[in-house]
């Protein structure tokens, strides 16, 4: 399936299941894959920052994380059928890893947060093997790379914030031959640790998480303005 283009940014029109199926094939072939979440705010940022656009477009899977991407695809008669959120994609990949016997490694966030996320996820997902973890405050990067390699983890989840996490992944992929799937997961460890509460199911079902967050944090209004700005640009460039 061809990727769709929005203001020069690639987006993969795959569902969760299609991504997992494709990842399984790529792992069997010994290929490394990267996953990055794309939303209207990130597309707008990419228009101003060539590095962000480059990091997105060179990824294996650019998942449509945001209702704005669904609307844009409909406007352009594209093939994106559902939101694929970063936090849920991580969850699906963890379940896949547990089923296939692949170890995973967590890197990022505060020590307490990443440790608690590890413990809760191991309790929630049968047979999940978290082969190792490290907080985002580690100083010795060579030792970190060695630790990940020694863990033999096949999937690595990096939570350093964007684009820092994507830059880290790009720089270290060649040094981590055992890792076959890399995902930058932003604040997902906060969610899985219970530190941050997700929007209720009703808001998630209808793609209204942005509205829930805005009600909780009115100061996010500037960031949320990226959605109408993005859709206007899509209409102009249709």
Written overview of the protein:
Helix content is 51%, strand content 16%. It is an alpha/beta fold. The strands form two sheets. It has a six-stranded parallel sheet with strand order 4-3-8-7-5-6, sandwiched between helices. It has helices spanning 16-28, 40-48, 50-57, 67-75, 86-100, 111-124, 141-151, 164-172, 188-193, 201-205, 209-216, 221-224, 226-236, and strands at residues 4-6, 9-11, 33-38, 61-64, 103-108, 129-134, 155-159, 181-184. Helix 6 (111-124) links the parallel strand 5 and strand 6. The longest helix has 15 residues, at 86-100. It contains 13 helices and eight strands. The model has no long low-confidence stretch (mean pLDDT 93). The chain has a single domain (4-193), classed as 3-Layer(aba) Sandwich (Rossmann fold).
